[in-house]
Amino acid sequence: MIKALLNLAIIDLHLISSLVKHGNSSVAGLDLGLSQSSVSYRLKKLRVTFSDELFTRTTNGLVPTEYCRQLERIGANIVNQVESDLYHAGDFNPLAIKKEIWLSIDDSNLDWIPEIYQELKSVAPYCTLCVRPWNPQSFNEIKNGTMNFGIHVIPANSSELFSVDLTYCNRALVVREGHYLSNQHRPVSLSDLTQFPVILHDLAGWNNFGQSTIETAMSKAKLPFKFDAKIGVIGGILNIIKNSNAIAYVATNSIPEDINGLNIISAPKELDETHVSYKMYIPSNRYGSQESTWMIEFLSSSFKRFSDKKQQIKDKALSTATTFG
Q: Homologous superfamily of 92-167+283-311 in CATH?
C-alpha cells in the first residue's frame, strides 16, 4: 500500500481525501478544480491500482470502504509531509549535501555542464556532481535511483517518475558559412532540404526510428527524404557541416557560443510547428524531500538561464543574417 501511495500524484491523494470528506464526486471535482470526466478517470485508475472499489455508491452519496479509509489516513500524512517540506524548502542549507548527485542529460545540453558545475560548487561545495550522457536505459536508471535526475525532451508516462517542465526546446538549421541556403532572401522550405545532405542529431536513439520532426514533416508533405547520417555527438556534426554542404536541424541549446564558420538559419515553419519541451525527471519516491525540492529549483533555474543565453546567440545570428544577407 505504502509503495503504491508514494507513486501516486499528489492530486490523486487529494482526490481520495476530498471524496471521503464530501462523499460526492461533483463537489470533490469543484474542490480540486477537476472536471467530472477527470474525477471519474482518476478514480477508475485508483481502483485498478489498489484492486479495491474504494467507494460504494449509496443514496447518501459515496461511502469509502475500510481499505479506502486506511488509504486516506496514510495519504493525508504523505500530503502534509510534502507540503511541509515545500513550505520550508527555503530553510534548506545546500552545505548539507555531502554526496554524489547523478544527472543524465542529452547531447544537446553538454555546454551546460561547465556552468552547472561552477554554480553548484559555489553553493554546495561538498556535493560531487556526476554527469552521464542520456542513453536508452536512462529512464530505468532514474526509476531505480542509479541516476538522481534526468533532463531530456522525451515524454514519459510512468507513476514511478515525477516530471518538471523546464523550457521550450527551440531549434534551428545549421549550415556552413556561405552555404547556398544562407544566401537566399526567402524562408527555407521543406523542398530545399531535399537538395542537400541532412544529418540527424540522434538524441540517444529517441528520434532515430522514423519519428524525427523532419521525417514526420516530410512524410506529411509527401516529399522523398532520407538522412545522410545519424550522429549522436553534436561536435562531430558541426565539424562535418563546416566542411560540406550538409544541413543539421538542432536544438538551440547545442549551438556553440563561437559560431565562426557556421550560419544559423530559421527552419521551415512545418518543423517549428512541432512543440517540444525539456523536462526534468526524478524518481517519484524522492519527490517532496527538502533536498530534492532545493535541487529541482536550483537545476531548473540554472537550466533556464543556460537556455535563454543560447536563444540569444541564435537570435543574434539570425538578426545578423537578416541585416547582411
A: Periplasmic binding protein-like II (3.40.190.10)
